[in-house]
Amino acid sequence: GAGVSQSPSNKVTEKGKDVELRCDPISGHTALYWYRQSLGQGLEFLIYFQGNSAPDKSGLPSDRFSAERTGGSVSTLTIQRTQQEDSAVYLCASSYGHQAKNIQYFGAGTRLSVL
Amino acid sequence: AQSVAQPEDQVNVAEGNPLTVKCTYSVSGNPYLFWYVQYPNRGLQFLLKYITGDNLVKGSYGFEAEFNKSQTSFHLKKPSALVSDSALYFCAVRDPLGSGAGSYQLTFGKGTKLSVIP
């Protein structure tokens, strides 16, 4: 079956611009996660959605970052007024339910470059 | 707070030799442990997990990992390395009793680059 799909695969933007990154999880997966992978910080958790519950935003690095999930499926991560330190690969993952033992399946990521 | 350490940034091994990628963890309770592999310009692919039960876990592509509670380790192993195993390997932990994000987010190590030399 189809895996986690992310778009765009690459995004180049100028400092100060807003960007939107999209994630389409595996069909039937109720839990969705965003992570950021950067050279200096490794893999960092950003935000978590479970069904229709309020998301856990505890990992978002600043208020320039926000995310939403429409209809319990597709998610969009928005970064406002991008900064050079936002350059990273943004990974989305989904799992069937939120139990800790469940496997998170990852998309290929969006590589964001802020010039 | 939970954490994972992968003490080696890079591991080099000759094709056909056994390989080991090391991982140690720290959690307050019993850990759930995972290994993922990342090929260039690809996302993370799940290899195997330890939840409970047998300490030796077998996963995809001939990989296995041994959970050692006393040493808080979860090393990844393969009896005979292939050139195609060359990739970046991540160990991750979840604390099922953690509060808030700690119970469902994966906490990753920094990754170990494995190079299998023909």
Structure commentary:
The complex is a heterodimer of chains A (115) and B (118). Chain A has 115 residues and is mainly beta. Chain A is built from no helices and ten strands. In chain A, strands 2, 4, 5, 8, 9 and 10 form a six-stranded mixed beta sheet that branches. Chain A has a four-stranded antiparallel beta sheet with strand order 1-3-7-6, with no helix packed on it. The radius of gyration of chain A is 13 Å and the shape is globular. The mean pLDDT of chain A is 92. Chain B is mostly beta strands. Chain B has a domain at 1-9 and 17-89: Immunoglobulin-like, CATH 2.60.40.10. Helices cover 0% and strands 49% of the residues of chain B. In chain B, the strands form three sheets. In chain B, strands 2, 5, 6, 10, 11 and 12 form a six-stranded mixed beta sheet that branches. Chain B has a four-stranded antiparallel beta sheet with strand order 3-9-8-7, with no helix packed on it. Chain B has a two-stranded antiparallel sheet with strand order 1-4. In chain B, a hairpin with a 4-residue loop joins strand 8 (64-68) and strand 9. Chain B starts with a strand and ends with a strand. The relative contact order of chain B is 0.33. The mean pLDDT of chain B is 92. Classes of the chains: A mainly beta (115), B mainly beta (118). Chain A binds chain B through residues 4, 6, 31, 33, 35, 42-43, 45, 48, 50, 56, 58-59, 91, 93, 98-101, 103-109, and chain B through 32, 34, 36, 41-46, 49, 51, 90, 94-96, 100-101, 103-111.
